[in-house]
Design a protein that fits this description.
heterodimer, A: 272 residues, mainly alpha, MetI-like fold, 2 domains, 12 helices, 78% helix, B: 266 residues, alpha/beta, 6-stranded mixed sheet, 4-stranded antiparallel sheet, 7 helices, 10 strands
Chain lengths: 272, 266
């Protein structure tokens, strides 16, 4: 039985700790190795600070950014942009994906349009958003986040609905379920893993959009800050901002993973 | 005369392949009558339209020609009066056993606690009490099939349709499940229509057996099984049982043999 596998292995002490967190420990070791290599290159290799600042300098910059509160307004600005764009993308992407997967008519109506837009480099829309929304306010970058995050969510939801087993639908119909009940109880739950996969993909693309959206004429935001420091050759501050992006991505994905795990207790994962 | 529980008259069904436009004649002029409280089996070779027949009775397929009535009411779509037990258990993997069984009731707006109470009762009937909170993944094949049966029974249907319910179980589990089904059926006396290609299973379970021909499926013969009830597994080794078994084998294979002989003559 699966449950027995989980409780095997050492039960007490350091060994148990190592056994339980083996994957996390290995992961941390990997990061440690990377940082060490980085230190060696920048310190021993005498690489100029404006090219590759040593890790401790980046850490110091990161601390200063928060301690001086210089980053806070930009961070808040970007958080708003991200939340607005990402939420709109999630709501509309999942809804349209469900509709396209369920109703053939909606699928035929929108399939060509979606394919065309999906193959377009979506960054090309950024200048358009600049014209639509102007440089001030969150909307141009929020729109960029939306257009980047929307498609992976839509495409994955659609794939999830199509993968949802026909036989479950037939069973539901035989039990007398209506379309609405089938979508609610079978299709949404059945396509859930795909939807989460789409949301995760959308997270990294949405964060990319935060940078890309600030490329032109931005006046606030993490992307703006990044370019500001970049233009001034303040590489260590720049890297600190990049680190903020990474941490945000990791946090959002971890949150999504928690949600996924909560809804898939029935799958009883052993290892990821 | 009382109205029969299930009345099928002059049922024919053609499938049309959307791409090639070719037509497949699945059922031809099938008429049958099942009385209240009767257990009837339909046997036939692969592709004789057995499953089509069940889907039509369940209201999942609209037949090309003919009429189906349950309790004198024409079947126009799935309804609560017909319960379907599928070949595969098809339990929703993200619902527990209890949730799976009570789902059909919740779809009919039965409130949650009453649905759970009724589901628990049926779960007891099929012998799964104690496993209500298990997910399908941790249930064995036989247990999943019991749950499948429970899901159909919880709606208290007038007619239970069984689509080769034990075809995917190992031989030993199948025997046990057949016995369990006999036990549950003898306790509830629901009118039942079983479709199977397992002749022994049909003889063991049914009061009457409809033998279908190969495609297009037509009724070749009806065999009344006069074995005493309650039926135990031991009955399968009695001479009378084996006679029924042999008779149906003969009915199924006769046509094939005749054809072969004719082919070799010409």
């Amino acid at each position: 039985m699966d449950e027995e596998d989980i409780v095997t292995g050492p039960q007490f002490g350091l060994k148990r700790f190592v056994y339980r967190y083996a994957y996390s420990l290995l992961g941390l070791t990997g990061i440690g190795l990377f940082v060490s290599l980085w230190s060696v290159i920048s310190i021993v290799g005498r690489v100029p600070e404006y090219l590759i600042p040593a890790p401790h300098l980046v850490a110091a910059s990161l601390y200063d950014l928060f301690a001086s509160k210089a980053i806070i307004p930009h961070l808040w600005f970007s958080v708003q942009e991200f939340l607005v764009g990402y939420s709109l993308a999630a709501i509309s992407g999942v809804s349209l994906g469900l509709l396209m997967g369920w109703y053939k008519g909606v699928n035929y109506l929108s399939d060509m349009l979606v394919s065309a837009l999906y193959s377009t480099p979506r960054i090309a829309f950024v200048p358009l958003f600049l014209i639509f929304f102007g440089v001030i306010g969150i909307w141009k970058t929020a729109a960029t986040v939306f257009i980047m995050a929307f498609f992976p969510i839509l495409v994955n939801t659609l794939a999830g609905v199509k993968l949802c087993e026909e036989s479950y639908i037939r069973m539901g119909r035989a039990l007398g379920a209506t379309d609405y009940q089938l979508i609610r109880d079978v299709v949404i739950r059945g396509s859930f893993p795909s939807v989460i996969a789409g949301l995760r993909l959308a997270t990294s693309l949405g964060l990319t959009a935060l940078v890309v959206g600030d490329l032109y004429g931005a006046q606030a935001g993490l992307g703006y800050l990044l370019f500001l420091y970049g233009n001034a050759f303040r590489t260590s501050e720049m890297m600190a901002v990049i680190l903020v992006f990474s941490l945000t991505g990791v946090l959002v994905n971890a949150a999504l993973k928690r949600i996924e795990d909560h809804f898939s207790a029935w799958r009883l994962r052993v290892a990821d | 005369m009382t109205t029969p529980k299930l009345l099928i008259s002059n049922l024919s069904h053609l499938y049309q392949d959307a791409k090639s436009g070719r037509k497949l004649h699945a059922l031809h002029n099938v008429s049958l009558k099942v009385d209240d409280g009767e257990f009837v089996a339909v046997v036939g070779p692969n592709g004789c339209g057995k499953t089509t027949l069940l889907n039509v009775v369940a209201g999942l397929i609209r037949p090309t020609y003919g009429r189906v009535m349950v309790d004198g009411v024409p079947v126009n779509g799935p309804s609560g009066s017909v319960g379907l037990v599928f070949q595969h258990p098809l339990l929703l993997p993200w619902k527990t056993l209890l949730e799976n069984v009570s789902w059909g009731l919740e779809l009919r707006d039965v409130n949650r606690s009453e649905a759970a109470t009724r589901a628990r009762e049926v779960i007891r009937t099929v012998g799964l009490l104690g496993f209500e909170d298990y997910y399908p993944k941790s249930l064995s094949g036989g247990m999943q099939q019991r749950a499948n049966l429970a899901r159909a029974l919880v709606l208290d249907p007038e007619l239970v349709l069984l689509d080769e319910p034990f075809a995917n179980l190992d031989a030993q589990t199948r025997e046990i499940m057949q016995y369990e089904l006999v036990r549950v059926w003898e306790a509830t006396r629901k009118t039942a229509l079983l479709v199977t290609h397992n002749i022994t299973e049909a003889v063991y379970l049914a009061d009457r057996i409809f033998v279908l021909t190969k495609r297009p499926g037509k009724i070749k013969d009806i065999v009344r099984v006069d074995l005493p009830r309650p039926r135990t597994l031991a009955i399968k080794r009695t001479l009378r049982f084996l006679e029924y078994d042999g008779r149906i084998w003969d009915l199924l294979e006769m046509g094939e043999h005749e054809k072969k002989i004719q082919c070799s003559k010409t």
